[in-house]
UniProtKB/TrEMBL annotation:
Species: Egibacter rhizosphaerae
Superkingdom field: Bacteria
Record protein name field: Uncharacterized protein
Keywords: Membrane, Transmembrane, Transmembrane helix
TM spans (from-to): 27-47, 67-88, 95-118, 124-143, 155-173, 193-213, 220-239, 245-265
């Protein structure tokens, strides 16, 4: 009889490792770290999360932050959705943990870029977030294989991902240049809004790239990245005069690329599920047998 594994007895928490006491202890530690990482971000999430919807209706002086408010909410979604996915079943989805680490790192950089937020929060939460993220990466199963593609890279999906990364880098550079040119008293600069948008664009592209590279667990980061990019495209079309809004061509471009990335990824996943995988390389035919050889 095969030895029971953590994958069969604990919902895939430790992949295919034997369900030993050490494996169970590691699974418990992983649960604690995921929950602690989520709780550590509750204060900003309670404030920023509702902005995903409420920022659409802001009026008066605060209306200048309308689009930036939307993406405070997007950041909360990009953090908590993968955390919940890891809490449900962390294996075999190490790419999700890598994406969480990227989102947390982006949040830390955003706080460091804002004297107002840093003075209000202090360095303590940043240290806690960093330690918990390192612990998450150390405990999540399958991290060593996180950057090994599950199948042959698809040139179409790879091209879509590359185009998305290029757009994200250009957008991040543009937002960073604006941030560097404005004074420290600019209201967007004080709250690191330019940094927020630059980092969110890069996170969206990173999520799509994880999926385009066919990495284990890449589906969720790809969907989140595509939806964040599409949300920016829609918001830019609806509020073209807002700070950080994309020009018309870029807004339409990210909408097309986001939809194309999701559709192509799901087509490949559907084909793989039906057994329509990439055919193996042809094998050389054996030569004729030589008598007496």
């Amino acid at each position: 009889m095969n030895e029971p594994t953590a994958g069969t007895r604990f919902g895939g928490w430790l992949g295919d490792r034997p369900a030993s006491k050490g494996a169970v202890a590691r699974a418990v530690a992983l649960v604690v770290v995921i929950v602690a990482l989520g709780l550590a971000h509750v204060p900003p999430a309670l404030f920023q999360g509702p902005m995903l919807v409420t920022a659409w209706t802001v009026e008066g002086p605060e209306a200048i932050h309308q689009l930036h408010g939307l993406f405070n909410g997007v950041w909360v979604v990009m953090l908590y959705v993968p955390l919940l996915a890891l809490l449900y079943r962390p294996a075999p989805r190490p790419a999700v943990a890598v994406f969480v680490a990227a989102v947390v790192a982006a949040g830390v950089l955003r706080v460091l870029a804002s004297p107002v937020i840093l003075a209000d929060a202090g360095p303590g939460p940043l240290v806690v977030a960093g330690v918990l993220t390192i612990a998450l990466l150390a405990l999540v199963p399958g991290l060593r294989g996180a950057f090994r593609p599950m199948g042959r890279l698809d040139p179409i999906l790879g091209g879509i991902g590359s185009a998305g990364v290029l757009l994200a880098v250009l957008y991040a550079v543009q937002q960073s240049v604006i941030w560097l040119q404005l004074s420290a008293t600019d209201p967007h600069t004080q709250l690191a809004h330019w940094t927020l948008m630059a980092l969110t664009g890069l996170l969206a592209a990173f999520g799509v790239a994880l999926g385009a590279a066919r990495l284990p667990g890449g589906r969720l980061p790809l969907w989140l990245g595509a939806m964040a990019a599409a949300y920016l495209g829609v918001a830019s079309l609806v509020m073209p005069g807002q700070a950080s809004a994309l020009p018309l061509w870029a807004a339409l471009g990210v909408l097309v690329l986001s939809a194309a990335a999701v559709v192509r990824f799901e087509m490949l996943a559907f084909g793989a599920a039906r057994g329509v995988a990439t055919p193996p390389a042809p094998q050389p035919r054996p030569g004729p047998a030589v008598a007496g050889g």
